[in-house]
Request: fold
Amino acid sequence: MVFSTYYLLVGLNHRYELLAPSKSVDGASFRSYELVNKHGDDRLLATLCRSVDPGDVVIDAGANTGVYALAVAATCPDAQVVAFEPSPSVVEQCRRNVRLNAFEDRIDVRGVGLGSESGAATFYRSNYDELGSFNAGNAGAWEASVEDTVSVPVATVDALVAAAELSPPDHLKIDVEGFEYEVLLGARETLRRHRPVVYLEVHDVPDTDRTRADHESALADLLRDCDYRIRRRGSEWHCLPRDE
Reply:
């Protein structure tokens, strides 16, 4: 009941743009239609905000309603954020929050998922907007249920950079509910050539035979193969190219 009430209120608040409380992350202030300051004490977000310099390009993979993107844009107005969010309803919420702060020139919001291959994938829409996922189990977590499915576009970071549809990033934040490996797999050439700093929120792998330990081992092997060192704080990984 608690989750259902909260997500219902947040969805209505975004839809009708009723209340936009001020948020603060590591000294950066912005407003959004989220009702609470969910990432106010997020250490990985604070690390990102402190690391961004003017002119930097930041990829936000799994932008959700835009907290990371908004915090970076508020911290460093001259940085460029490209926010990827595949959920059709949540990406509209993200766009509302960007417009609310007049950050359209700082944040490019794209209704696209990032993964290991370009194409399209089935997205499970949840009755709790923010729980929509490429995995049915995620979309039906807690008290939620799957409402329907929709096909959404999926791209790889490498293909977008190679086609000049995306500038080579200086920072790559990934929070994609268990699909972290797929995003990194589709960004290997970018990691090797352009050396962005990676900010990784590691989740359990949904509905597979892989254990959490298997998932973390695969992520670490991929990053080390691209010559990155990993600083772990629980599920938060701050990954730095070894040439820095």
Observations:
- The chain has a mean pLDDT of 93.
- Residues 161 and 167 are 6 Å apart (CA to CA).
